[in-house]
Amino acid sequence: MSGPTTDSLVVSLRENPLDPKEKVFRTALNDRGEFKITVPVAVPTKADLVYGDDVAPLYLDPGTDLDVRFKGDDMAGTLKFKPNDVPTGIKAKISNGSTLTTEQRHRQQAANANNYLAEFDAQFVENDGFQPLPDNIQLYEAPYISFLEYRRKHELNFLEDRAARQSFTQEFYNYAKAEVIYSYANDRLMYQDLREQVVNTEGRLKMTPDYYSFLNDPALLNSPESVQNELYHEFLINYVHYAVAQAKHLRSDPSFYMASYALASKQLNGAIRPIILGRILQESFRFGHVKQSAAMLADYRTFDPKNHYYSTLKTDFDKHKDFSIGAPAPNFKLTSATGDTVHLHDFTGKLVYLNFWKSTNGLCLRDLAYAQELIRKFEGKNIVFINIALDENEQAWRQLVTIKKLPGVHVRVAGGGLRSALAQSYALQEVPTYMLVGEDGTFLNTKPKRLSSRAAVDEINQSFGKASTYSSTIELHPAGGK
Questions:
Q1: Strand ranges (DSSP E) for 282-407?
Q2: According to the model, what pLDDT value does residue 93 have?
Q3: For the whole model, what pTM was predicted?
Q4: Which terminal residue of the chain, N or C, has fewer Cβ atoms less than 10 Å from its own Cβ?
Q5: 195-217: burial string, b at 16+ Cβ within 10 Å, e else
Q6: Rounded-to-integer distance, Cα 48 and Cα 311, Å
Q7: CB of 262 within 8 A of CB of 480?
Q8: At residue 480, does pLDDT exceed 80?
Q9: Of the candidates 313, 43, 365, which has an alpha carbon nearest to the alpha carbon of residue 175?
Q10: What's the whole-number mean pLDDT along residues 195-220?
Q11: Widest pairwise Cα distance in the chain
């Protein structure tokens, strides 16, 4: 490295597509900017080379040995790879490297692959003109498709030109081609949703009848040679969401994740199926009903008999289950501002909006006016608003509640604040924190809309009776796909 700007370099990778934790390999630079790093991989693996704030893609092939060079102040723009212990010059170029030994040829292919990624990144990925954002997403349907097809054509030409002039392994060629195919497919699939979010001066576009016809290609869903490609994974999870929505299952519906799981288990096959089913499960662990998640996780073992991913998913489920939809909200016994004893289970049969706050917190105080307005809107409805103060100063809290005549139920945790047992039982990290508890005493939403949000009213209205709807959905839509 010439002109080092920091004293270490990192290679990071994910061995398990369902484990968000990356494996990180770090090495120090010597005073000449030299470094050596060994990264153990069992199969060809996509990784990242990280130096300071610069990140560049890597393709690591087992058994290869590369010379890597770049400038410290511009890694992405100057990155070059050469194979170690491979003759250079005309001999190495004759017959696409046919004079090399098998090991040398493999190293040359690895260098070719990584040089391709660096060039592809500079020409297409880092070029806004070839990306939907920020400008191309504003195009209407016909010109947007033209843009995508133009980009796909040039990316494929770039790949085929490089493949004709230098040697790639078949695995890397498949990976690189999948990058092009699924970049096109994903950007086309997500166009309608993304444009609606970005171009907020217009309504949602109505697409022509054949806009989504490209999804009818069966090879697009089941592509064994693309299994290692993350863009393929992203396309499939977005496709499942789209297909389930077309079947009238909205994200807010209790049946959404079970319907997604059932669809993926039927339409996908081979090595990609347990990966995408695992992705759906991870979404359900965070946003779905805990009993539905448990049922699907038990069914998942059918698709992962060798336990490639199940243990990772089980750990993830255990991490989230206590605060998932359908998990029982921890009961409490607190004293109200009027001196009464209040338990959460006193309100079984009612929707409960919990507001954890402090009278000394500016954001909490700002939300007071919105809280009062929201409570008035639901006066006489089957809902109670419980405001749980984490104040250390009882007198100041009680005085504020009394003088302001704050509506709703007001209780206080007697000492400890965010370190108190109650705060820990609800995994509180900050105030204000809001939660919705269903009529059966289980969590409906641990991150509802803020009191100040205009959408809070609609969200609460949609929450009445939803807890019982989830219970019936578990019976109506069992996990399946065997």
A1: 333-336, 341-343, 351-357, 383-389
A2: 54
A3: 0.89
A4: C
A5: beeeeeeeeeeeeeeebbeebee
A6: 26
A7: yes
A8: no
A9: 43
A10: 95
A11: 91
